[in-house]
Each structure stands twice: as structure tokens, then as C-alpha cells.
Amino acid sequence: MNQQLFAAFIAGVALAPLTAHAQDLAADDVIVTGTTATATKTATPLVDIPQSVTLLDRRRLDDRASRTLNEALAYVPGVNTGSYGFDPRFDAFFVRGFQATYTGVFRDGLRQLNSPLGLWRNEPFGIERLAVVRGPASVLYGASGAGGLVDVTSKRPRAERFAEVQGMVGSYDRYQLNADVSAPISDDVALRLTGVARDSGTSLAGFDDDRYFLAPAATARLGDATDLTVLGEYMRSRTGASAAFYNDAGGVTRIPLSDPRFNDLTHRQWRAGYALEHRFGDAVSFHQNLRVQDVTVDMAYSYVTDPTAPITRLGARAADWTKSVNLDDQLRAELTTGAVHHRLLIGLDFNDVRYRSAEGFGTAPLTDTNLARPPLVPTTRQRFSQIGVYAQDEVEAGALGLTAGVRHDWLDARTDVPAAPTIERDDRRLSGRVGATLRVAKGVTPYLNWSTSFEPNVGLLLDGTPARPTGARQYEGGVKWNPRSGVLLSAAAFDIRQRDGVVFDASTGINRQVQLDLRSRGAELEASARIAAGLDLTAAYALTDMRIRRGAAGTIGNHLSATPRHSGSLWADYAPAGRGFGLGAGMRYLGPSWGDDANAIQNHARTFADAVIHYDVPSRAPLRFQLNATNLLGAEPVTCAAGFCYRDQGRTVLASARYRF
């Protein structure tokens, strides 16, 4: 197995698994200041959560016409979606400087454990809302990253009839049709079906972005005390296989890494599951979430062997298959003892993941007559089984709030590679969290938090052995101010230490457990405010000082690559009532960063502007015309991460017409 060549393609993309869950929010509330169950697994107001949390509702996704999960998260403080420039293959992002791609995304409260290529994708049109928890959250979710997690909530059936059809056309021959239908079929049963069909090119030659997506859902009331929601999904996507550029040692020569004639990735995934709730009276309830899922990725890519003209490239192929079963059982109870109120949570979750991979490499340079895909050869087969038990108590005693939780996980892994003995590994991990809030005058709530995390690592190290799980701990303090409805201001400072991180070493292109000790310190500011009727504003700023305390030779004391020290965003939306007209505009700023861990390549600061204009036809209120522009100024800078370079997408325009009935 040629790991060096394989890593040359996927270097710069992060990997791992996660989950969360949010409560219903008002459909017309673009400034979300309500409650969420993501951080605590119980319905808790944002101001009472001793941790940084951001919620994004469906209206915000619609107004910004988010085409990927990355675009949806671009205005959230502490979330860096720009490390790999334009690359629509996967949603690769960092939270507080730590990769969250592999273990940082949950779907409907259940983990999405990714493999190096078998990453679950999230179609934005199928999302009802998002919740972003910053900082470790393993006490409730088990294997998850140090920086935090994103929970994606799927669209679910509505109690009333609803239908929506939307057509889109945009830059690079983008054509897309969205449809969403929901209706009750009886007093106790409702159905919903959401679909997307897209045919699209991109700014990169030979790099398509096509997709078919279908998501059925059903809810049923099974008696007075039991509710069941069934969720399904099938998605087939086709994109290019590599958006990276070749980079010489000094970061000067940059040419496309892949040949447009030999550059495609086919991605298929399906998932099916349910959420069950049974209430034992008013104070005690049982919740069970179950999902089975499968993802298959097959890609053909090329890599540069001689960058001098004429450029010489060899073809290669890689494939991943990942199957998993996720189960989470929870028992919730509320009780009051004197002046103290308790929200108790006891849970058990189980995750079983089976992963296998294969590779193939060509031996002759690519030409017009030599574009054959090499055959696949099996390389790795792994199975992870994880069982976790957890308990949490949320205490309210007057103005004081306390949240404390503890969890124990048992993780078993088995790895098989050709012509080598089976490798078995057992790990036991204890996770915890303690947080406190204090409500003071005029809606001001300061808080403190200590939490830990751990995450398993899929794949093998240089010596052919599985990596140790990565662990982290965080101290966080901050204040939240909710002076009135529709306004939430927050400030936070944090210190996170992570040990035993696994990365692709850009100097050798080999998987190494070299990030032995990373430290992220920083501060975040966030504001969501309804300034006046029809005028909404969101603003964010993040200071992230990410240092390698122990790591590969030549990197100790350096800044982690592709992690800007300063980043910020501002978005304003104006839609006066009764006029049908609305517009919005935003700015995103990413400060300078390093293009490799040796801090030899420098990325310049980047600024992007986005805008939207929409019009609701007065005589036909359900009909909306909308025009979105992303990167309005047309900047196309190059950014490097882990020694590989990527271009940002230039100006894109997307026009849409939506009819609801």
C-alpha cells in the first residue's frame, strides 16, 4: 500500500465522528435565542448553558442559500471553514483550531463516525436547523473532538399541510430543483418527503458537483404517552476527486495536483432510523434514538510526479466502505427538593462501525490514450465497537445553576491488513464536565466550565498499528447577556489542551500520531440582535492562538497550519413587514495563517463579501424570487494547509424562485 501517494491526495482534510439535538424554534425567528438540547440533551435555554452554543434556524439557511454545511457555518465564531479553500467533496472545518470533520458532526443526536474517505455528507435543503457546541462534549456524546461538535437536525413531518418547490440556476452551469412536501394523513400520523436534484459544474476544470437526494420521514402518536419519528435518506453525489494544488518546498510553484480528465469521486450514502419518546407521567420520560447507515466512496485521482513542463502525472484510485449502527437510550427525570430543582439524565449508547478500504496505482503517465482506472487492492479492514454509560444532573437553586456529568466508555477495535497479524486494541476512557451559571441583574449570566473529550482514530500509523485515542480537556469562562427578547450577546475565553492527535505529516505524506500536545487559547464574541422590526444583525469575532507544544521535529512551539489567529464576520438582514422586499449583506474575515506546521509557508489574510436580495410577490405571498452572491468581490486567493494548497472559489451568483402552497 502506497500511503505516501494516497496522503498526497487527501492531505488537508480532517477526519472523525459526533451528534446533538435541538428543540423546535419559531419559523420566523432568524435571530435564534431559544432553547436547545444539544449541549445538555435536555431542553435548556441558551443563557443557562455553561458553554458556548450557537443555533442556526431554517430561515437563516434559506436567506444565505447555503449550498454546503461549510457555508452554513461560515458566520459562526470559532469555526474555521476556510482551511481548504474551495473543495465541495466534504464538509471540512475546524472548531477552536481543532479538526471537526471526522468526529465533530452529529445527525439527529447520533454520531457520524467517518473514515479517511467515507465521510457522511449533509444536504442543506434537508436540514431543519443546526446547533454548534464549542468545547469538549464527550460526557454526553462519547467519542468527539476537542473543539466541539455540530448537530444537524433533519426535517421532520409538520402538523399542518406544507409544500414547497424551488428552482435554482447559478454560476458554472448550476441547475437545481428542490421539493419538500409534508402532510398529516390522520390525527396521529404525518409524512414528509424532501428531495434535491442538481447538475452543476464548478470553478475548477473537470470538477462537477452533481447530486440526487431523497429523505422520507414519518411521525406517529402511539397512544397518549408515546411518539415515534422515523427518518430515512438516500444521497448520490458526484464531484471531482482532488481540488488541491501542487506546492513546492517554498510555496511558490502551484499547479493543479489532478488531471481534469482523470478526476472524479462518486459518493453514495443511505441511513434509516427512528426517535422514540415515552412519557411516564409529567416528570419521567424514556428516549431512544437508533440509526443504521452506510456510505461508499470511489474516486479516481492523479498526482504530480514531475512539475516541470510538460507536467507528468500518474493515475490512482481509492475506495472506502463504512457501515455503522448507532443507539442512544436516555432516561430523563425532573424533581424538586425544597428550593432546588433537578433535571436528571441517565443514558447508555452503543456504536458499531465497520470500515474497509482499497487502493490502486497506475504505473504509466496519464495521456489522452491512457486514462484507464487501476484495479483496487484491499488495504485495511477495521471494526470499532463502543459502549458508553453516562449520567448528568442540572441543578437550579435560585439564581445559581450547576451542571455536572460523568461518563465511562469501553472501546474495542480490530484491524486487519493483508499479510499481517490481526491487531486488537481495547481502551477505557472516563469523561466529565462541571459547569456553573449565575443569573444576575438585567439578564446577565456569567458562567464557568470544565470539560473533557476523547476520540478514536480510524486508520493506521506508519508502523502499521492503530493509533491511541486522542484526549483533551478545556477550561472556559464567559458571560451571556439577554437584555430583551430577540437579543443575545456573549463573550467567552477558553484554554484547551489536546494530546495524541493524529495528522497526515506533509513532509512524508504518512499518517503519524505526531500532535502529542496541542494547546488552543482564545476568546470569542458573538451577537444576535433584532435591532428593529425587520432588521436583524449577527456579528462574531474569534481570537485563536493554536500552538504545537509537543510534535514532529521542527514544529514544536509553532502555530498549527491553516489556523488564523483572528477571524470575524458580520451579517445584516433587512425585510420590512408588508413590503415584500428584503436584502442582506455580510462580510467574513480570515486573518493570516501558516500553510504548514513548520511555519515556512504563509497564508495572507482573506476577506469575503456575500449578499442577497429577495422579493415576495404581494399578490402571491408564497412566491419568492431571490438572488444570492457569494464572494461578491471576486477574490480568488490561494490558501495552504498541511503543505498543500487550495484556491478559494471566486464570485458565484445563484438565482432562485420558490413557491410554497
Automatic annotation (TrEMBL):
The keyword Ligase does not apply. The keyword Membrane applies. It comes from the Bacteria. InterPro entries: Beta-barrel_TonB, Beta-barrel_TonB_sf, Plug_dom, Plug_dom_sf, TonB-dep_rcpt-like, TonB_sidphr_rcpt. Residues 221-632 form the TonB-dependent receptor-like beta-barrel domain. NCBIfam families: TonB-siderophor. PANTHER family: FERRICHROME IRON RECEPTOR-RELATED, FERRICHROME OUTER MEMBRANE TRANSPORTER_PHAGE RECEPTOR. This is TonB-dependent siderophore receptor. It comes from Sphingomonas citri.
